[in-house]
Specification:
Strand content: over 45%
Number of domains: 1
CATH architecture: Irregular
Structural class: mainly beta
Radius of gyration: 18 Å
CATH class: Few Secondary Structures
Number of helices: 1
Distance between the termini: 20 Å
Helix content: under 10%
Order of helices and strands: EEEEHEEEE
Length: 144
């Protein structure tokens, strides 16, 4: 039985030329979190247990990278977008660095960059962590 490997999934960001995504180099971790709000459906008749239904879902992507320069179209674009407030198209592609569109795109959505943190610790590589939040529903999502 084959295992899915995290190394095969890479995050891409739309470059300053729309429709031309670039891989963000130096990726170490990539985590997608899906959460659903709860709708209380309980009545007094349900005592002693309440019931809930799933509500609207939120989706975030948390990532860590060790910037691998020069990376003018990936990391630099992430920094630029992270400094502003406009959403940009992100993709996750399977197939490692060789992931091609559209065949290897397993996730695509317009997302905001939030919580862009950079760690410049002594005697260590520069680490950058960031969180992406949805600006619109994903147009491709075969991971969920």
């Amino acid at each position: 039985m084959a295992k899915k490997l995290g190394n095969d999934y890479r995050l891409w960001i739309d470059s300053s030329t729309p429709g031309t995504p670039a891989q963000i180099l130096g990726q170490t971790t990539l985590k997608i979190s899906r959460q659903a709000g709860q709708i209380d459906t309980a009545t007094k008749d349900d005592f002693p247990y309440g019931t809930q239904a799933p509500g609207l879902k939120s989706l975030t992507i948390d990532a860590e990278i060790y910037p691998n320069l020069p990376d003018a179209s990936g990391y630099t674009r992430l920094e630029t977008v992270g400094a502003g407030s406009a959403p940009v198209l992100f993709q996750i592609r399977k197939g490692g660095s060789a992931g091609v569109a559209p065949a290897d795109v397993v996730f695509a959505a317009s997302m905001y960059v939030g919580n862009l943190d950079t760690d410049f610790s002594k005697n260590d590589v520069v680490k950058c962590t960031f969180q992406l939040t949805l600006a619109a529903a994903p147009t491709i999502d075969t991971l969920g």
